[in-house]
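Troubleshooting: if your tokenizer reports a length mismatch, compare your output against this known-good record of 133 residues.
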Amino acid sequence: MEQQPDPAFTPGLTAQVELTVTDSDTAQALGSGDVPVLGTPRVLALAEAATVVATAQLMPAGMSTVGARVELDHKAPTPVGRTVVAQARLAKVNGRRLLFEVTVTDGSATVAEGRIERVLIDRQKFVEKAFGQ
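Known-good structure output:
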């Protein structure tokens, strides 16, 4: 029988995380471009981190979530030294699927926005399957 999400996972759940951009966060450092600004892979990782934080305190024992689908528009460059904030809001719950709306901002400017879908999984079974056990 498929595990259903905890009733605590209801639309409207939010969380945010911050990052002060360093040289290691740039497109140059990440290999995603040759410019010294916040790289798209780091923007995505930050947005995903916000989705994880949003569910962390309510996560049932033995369960976790994994990323399944991402739609992200990286709209503006952010130089080293600036602080960006990623916010995730749970927009929809469909069985084990959790759809988040995410935004990354630099002050009042929108750096990126999109949607991230995560799937609730049994952590032990997932890891065993990944390692062929």
